[in-house]
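Exercise: predict the structure of this protein bound to glutamic acid.
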Amino acid sequence: MVGRYAPSPSGDLHLGNLRTALVAWLMARSAGSPFLVRVEDLDRGRSREHFVATQLEDLAALGLDHDGPVMRQSERAPRYDEALARLGRDDRLYECFCTRAEIRQAASAPHGDGPEGAYPGTCRHLSSAARTTHLEAGRRPALRVRADDASFAIEDRLAGTVTATIDDFVVRRADGEHAYNLAVVVDDADQGVQEVVRGDDLLSTTPRQAWLATQLNLTPPASYVHVPLVLGPDGTRLAKRHGAVTLRELLAAGWTDADVLTFIARSIGVDGTPQSAADLVAAWDLAQLPRDPVTLDPATALPPR
Ligand code: GLU
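Solution:
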């Protein structure tokens, strides 16, 4: 099962990201499988070249090695355009002028019958007069894929079978950038990824991605592991505001790479004092991974020597 880790270079990886990366790496390596890394620098506004380098360095420092070249989404626009062209030929695309606020409002209307947070279909049958009005008002359309309320199921090794009604989701943003939900599908298929391990904040969008793969005649990943979130001591999602949470910050606070690895390993149910991720492969067992969000507080945890 070819695995991968696909960070967005919008900051240094924090303990939650490193933990997910470690699980992804262990899933692949414990099965003797290839492990790939992809830089998700699709969002030019938020991506920084500096973080591409530091993220790769931090993965390497913990011993999370990878096979083959690192794929960069910023270099793959022609492939995403091919996918859009195919959807267009299949009459699966339409322009959408809705703002987020308009979608929220329409989706909360009493007659809305789609799944929660789903696009209510406002622009699905836009008249050419309405389209002209939007364009004249300076609005630029996003492109949505027409899913016809298809029902689609994916298999997650923690969450089980997840079935969803697919809404018409954005595949090209109004600013012209390709949408994450398009890129990830094309990339995982082109890289031959068979198992996706990532944070469980993406679980709800996964049926969309797998469904889109089938529309593009691509093979979706066979299995998923959506790893429960890491929380800070205040119970909110771990982030910068919680203090020293990146590898660099922890090293500056006196931890070693091995300390950080040991700390993360305990949080995924593996005891020991690893010097490198390879030392964890034999003991790794997905069944030991906590199914609920875990709280990590490096400030009160002594470096685990
Ligand atoms: N790039 C996404 C992130 O850093 C992960 C996407 C994925 O793994 O599919 O949150």
